[in-house]
Amino acid sequence: MERKNVLIPQADLDRQREFEEKIRAMFASREAHPVACVDTFGCQQNVADGQKLMGMLADCGFTFTQDPKEADLVILNTCAIREHAEDRVFGNLGALTHTKKENPEQVIALCGCMAQEPRVSERIRKSYPHVDLVFGPQALWKFPELLWQVYETHKRVFSVQDEHGTIAEGIPVVREKGVKAWVSIMYGCNNFCSYCIVPYVRGRERSRDPQCVLEEVRQLVEAGYKDITLLGQNVNSYGNDLDLDYHFPDLLADIDKIPGEYLIRFMSSHPKDATKRLFDVMAASPHVAKQLHLPFQSGNDRVLKEMNRRYTRQQYLDLVNYAKSVMPGLVLTSDVIIGFPGETEAEAMDTVSLVEEVGFDALFTFIYSPRPGTKAAEMPDPATRAEKQTWFDKLLEVQNHMSAKLHAAYVGKTVRVLVDGESDDPEFPLTSRTEGNRLVRLKGDKALIGQFIDVTVTGSNTWALYGEAV
């Protein structure tokens, strides 16, 4: 992929602002006040995309609601990683037939990773005639133009061409109120893990210019955001396409130089590209949280090879052992798949034993879900769902015991947290996060929200800590 083909020219971006003005003028001429509902599914990258959609809609004159019945425009911003998420989207699309019936002028759009899958867009075309607009992640930057086409032609619009992917700088963003923000530092994926659809729907890896990332983070810090997460399908390969000899550890080190009171996190990391230098930079950077999400997926070498992960169990263990050695107290989390096609019980128990050996603070665990179009979906899969569930239950048993034990060790200690919101627990009305991203439910006044404070941990369970401000 040639770098010169990646950046969207400024003239093309300016043209999108013209379509925003057309939409704003159209509603103004009707003396209408358009309302949009943006419903986002899936990962934080989707959340970041949803905030860009809201930014463009705000420039078009829209305000926002969470109730589709109140909306003139409903956007389902979708995820294609798991079958369950896909089923929810189709269920929600079906329910929108009723809102469309009550408001025939309502525009319904489907975007995100699901929309980029040919089988999905074709299903929408044939079976969901009330959906007006379908576009994939690569077309997000030209959303105003696509929406204007719907309004102008009163016809359905599909923009799901197989594109290599682009970068569009300067798209407006509507961020959540509070202390947390997300910054995409790169897009796409080159890894082609055999179970994953992402490279097919988000295109090849392309990194944002370091100065653009640094300026965005600087603006967020100045605006008062204090928990900032850098996003990419594989942040560890950031910079490989820039021809600058500038990589993810360099970016982290430069971000750390930005003055202010804040924490930097990142996800996701691929073990094959994680380096000792990355961990050294993390250890030396006060603003970089000593938290690492490093998906290992399987603890068995044969299964890892079938997954096309390109590292071994021992290589993974060597990485986490080094990371722990330079960052004592590191909070380590991971993703795990149980029941990959062809996996045996013994191989699944290799995953369980790795969990026991490493001692993860928490895991995101999944029973394998086949995604059409991936290599793994074509593999023989003799194990039954009941067998996989048994292996999965064993994994959960081990990890829940580990999480409870690790959390119990916090009781009586004083930890520094960022108070980030309110909870529904009247006894502990505040939520906060440690540097390691552990949830701490707090007693205290909501005036503390947005502050770093010291708390004494008074209790714990498998999923959270409980504490009081010092």
UniProtKB/TrEMBL annotation:
Residues 34-152 form the MTTase N-terminal domain. Residues 175-405 form the Radical SAM core domain. Keywords: 4Fe-4S, Cytoplasm, Iron, Iron-sulfur, Metal-binding, S-adenosyl-L-methionine, Transferase, tRNA processing. Pfam families: Radical_SAM, TRAM, UPF0004. InterPro entries: Elp3/MiaA/NifB-like_rSAM, Methylthiotransferase, Methylthiotransferase_CS, Methylthiotransferase_N, Methylthiotransferase_N_sf, MiaB_methiolase, rSAM, rSAM_horseshoe. Its cofactor is [4Fe-4S] cluster. Binds 2 [4Fe-4S] clusters. One cluster is coordinated with 3 cysteines and an exchangeable S-adenosyl-L-methionine. It is found in: Cytoplasm. Its EC number is 2.8.4.3. It is an enzyme of class 2 (transferase). GO terms for molecular function: tRNA-2-methylthio-N(6)-dimethylallyladenosine(37) synthase activity. Coiled coil: none annotated. Residues 408-470 form the TRAM domain. Its main location: cytoplasm. [4Fe-4S] cluster 2 binds at residues 189, 193, 196. [4Fe-4S] cluster 1 binds at residues 43, 79, 113. The keyword Cytoplasm applies. Catalyzes the methylthiolation of N6-(dimethylallyl)adenosine (i(6)A), leading to the formation of 2-methylthio-N6-(dimethylallyl)adenosine (ms(2)i(6)A) at position 37 in tRNAs that read codons beginning with uridine. HAMAP family: tRNA_metthiotr_MiaB. Belongs to the methylthiotransferase family. MiaB subfamily. Monomer. This is tRNA-2-methylthio-N(6)-dimethylallyladenosine synthase. It comes from Oscillibacter valericigenes. The gene is miaB.
